[in-house]
From TrEMBL:
PANTHER family: PERIPLASMIC NITRATE REDUCTASE, ELECTRON TRANSFER SUBUNIT. GO terms for molecular function: metal ion binding. It comes from the Bacteria. This is Periplasmic nitrate reductase, electron transfer subunit. It comes from Candidatus Thioglobus autotrophicus.
Length: 137
């Protein structure tokens, strides 16, 4: 019985190639179409935050800024060592804590991949309309 169910699921997963979502129907193995030219939204000031503890949006473009095991381009401006010289905002102290709340001398590894939380903004037609309203409004 159990084996049958597993087999059924596996074969139906192979059959289903279209996924219907709010964006429309998509063939699963089709890549998304990237816009030809991205107009990044650049600001000298911060983006407004929409809720407490929101990771701030990035007010500059991030193309070509590599983050891998050997280098992290973001740190060349935002680290404690470089932020003054680069006239960039410094990462807040939360970036130095481990999960069990130990303060490390260096940035915590769990914050290394900045783009997991911080994202740049571009002028694009939204794929789906949003009716998000800030709690304060
Ligand atoms: C060449 C220096 C430089 C590099 C490299 C850089 N930044 Fe920035 N960043 C800045 C400056 C300067 C600002 C302040 C706003 C401005 O002038 O654009 C800023 C602003 C920000 C902010 C907004 C902070 C706030 O309080 O609102 C975030 C988040 C951020 N950067 C993340 C990143 C991430 C993630 C990367 C790597 C993908 C990165 N930055 C790479 C210079 C840099
Ligand atoms: C796990 C999510 C997460 C990751 C990964 C992360 N951040 Fe943040 N970051 C946040 C949050 C949340 C805030 C806002 C609250 C705070 O300061 O802790 C923030 C705030 C900031 C600020 C603004 C500080 C201020 O005082 O206003 C900067 C600059 C920044 N991060 C840079 C970075 C850089 C550079 C990296 C990568 C080296 C990074 N962050 C990785 C979540 C993250």
């Amino acid at each position: 019985m159990v084996v049958d169910t597993v087999t059924d699921v596996a074969s139906s997963a192979a059959d289903v190639v279209d996924v219907a979502s709010l964006r429309g129907t998509h063939v699963l193995d089709d890549l998304s179409i990237a816009p030809d030219k991205i107009k990044w939204i650049k600001k000298n000031v911060e983006f407004e935050r929409n809720y407490d503890d929101q990771p701030p949006l990035i007010p500059h473009k991030t193309d070509g800024m590599t983050i891998n095991l050997k280098k992290n381009k973001c740190l060349s401006c935002h680290s404690d060592e470089n932020y003054k010289e680069e006239d960039s905002p410094k990462m807040s102290s939360t970036h130095f804590f481990t999960r069990d709340e130990t303060r490390l001398p260096e940035m915590s590894p769990r914050r290394y991949f900045c783009l997991q939380c911080h994202v740049p903004q571009a002028k694009l037609d939204p794929l789906v309309d949003s009716n998000f309203v800030n709690l304060d409004e």
